[in-house]
Amino acid sequence: MPAGKTQPTPLLFVHGAYTAAWCWEEHFLPFFAEAGYAAYAVSLSGHGGSPGRKHLDSFSIGDYVRDVAAVAAALPAPPVLIGHSMGGFVVQKYLEEHIAPGAVLMCAVPPQGLLSAAMGMMFSKPGMMKDLNSLMSGGKASLETLREALFAQPVSLDDLKRYYKGSQSESHRAIWDMSLFGMPRAGRVKRTPLLVQGAEFDHLIPASLVEMTARTYDVDAHVFPGMGHGLMLERDWKKPAQQILDWLRELEG
């Protein structure tokens, strides 16, 4: 919460696969609170401290959308949604049925789904693909895979170990939902003002797919040079954060 005057519109941050609300606590929540916004982050079902870890594979994207809807409904006003990676896909699905004051799709799974990203990684980064599949099934990925998947900029070993400790498996059902079933209906999503962000060296959701997302929704793609998939944790995290802040202020008029 901000120390002083609070903006009327709260922010709700939605994490991606293999992680939880903690990924926003490092930089983004305090940054936006300092800027006057009540900033909230949800851990989706089976993630972080939320219930359901033992039956994680039973959760669908629809379940994650219901999580977001429940939290949004409990806030004092409809929030601007900021979704990263899988969280960006969840936000798109949420916007089919709800109109928000605005939404940010950050390195988001595109509305066309995950298959093109998966195929690209299979050929360009087969080792990373193997490790992520292992992590999805409850196994372990290497520290180096985590670094390569999230970061293009330097990250300390201590920080990397902390992030590694917070990583977890992901729902197979949710991954299949993003791959084959229930793609977002773009016409309904477009009713909400959108900001689309990506990263030049994102191996999971390449900049070309970020640009495809932006084209689908008739907005510009903002691809940050020299950064990787974990925009909110990268050394230059303030650049995407500041752009979101500037965009929020434009929305407010």
TrEMBL record:
SUPFAM superfamilies per the UniProt record, alphabetical: alpha/beta-Hydrolases (SSF53474)
Keyword ATP-binding: no
Pfam families linked: Abhydrolase_6 (PF12697)
Keywords: Hydrolase
Limits of the AB hydrolase-1 domain: 11-235
Keyword Cytoplasm included in the entry's annotation: no
GO molecular function, one term: hydrolase activity
PANTHER family: HYDROLASE ALPHA/BETA FOLD FAMILY, PEROXISOMAL MEMBRANE PROTEIN LPX1
Protein name: Alpha/beta hydrolase
